[in-house]
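Subject — a protein and its fold
Encoding — discrete vocabulary of local shapes:
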Amino acid sequence: MAGNDEGLWVRRFHPADDAPFRLVCFPHAGGSASYFFPVSRALSPSADVLAIQYPGRQDRRREPGLATIAELADGVTEALLPWLDRPTVLFGHSMGASLGFEVARRLEAGDVRPHALFVSGRVAPSRARDETVHRRDDAGLIAAVKELGGTDAQIFEDEAILEMVLPSIRTDYTAAETYRYTPGPLLRTPIHAHVGENDPKATVDEVRDWATHTSGRFTLTTYPGGHFYLNTHAPAVIGAISDALRPSDLRVTQ
């Protein structure tokens, strides 16, 4: 199954047409769909994993980036509509968590409730920080990205690659840092939050407040590590997703 926008937004590295549920993955700022290739490989064929590709990077590098979470959420939601024929789980890391949340809000407004929302390494929407990395010059932006440790260091040594990826990194940071929660109905979708205990971008207390954004179940899991704890603890996070998706619990929630 696919919509007209599949070639733009959705990447399926290991298609699993008979899987009982779908997992939609939203990358961090400066990230791409390929970040979730290992997740797709680990969960296939028990899950049909859709990794979202934002404009302005890799095979979408000729497209202008979208500098607001709202624009990204509108585009992703429309692209996902043809894929909602089975229980759908959303997973977002960092900026991707905010985006996953806004996509969940849009889906629920259209009477489609995701089976679960997993948010990783991101403060709750109501706990926005006043951050201005996106306003720094190129050197300052690069320094901030390096400090978090989630990007291959070789990228910063290759001027040609750096020139290609910097615009999308800046656009993503703009979207992430200028995002502000607009009050509205609580999600009914359960939220499962994950965070590194030493994450400089999201304290455990800031992440715990995701509980205030759902009327459904909420869980919080912490790990040793910083903002990209996920690189080390991916098997545990994947296991948590699998545990939350026991076959007896799966149903189309509309």
Remarks:
- Strands lie at 10-11, 21-26, 47-52, 88-93, 116-120, 191-196, 218-223.
- The CA atoms of residues 16 and 45 lie 5 Å apart.
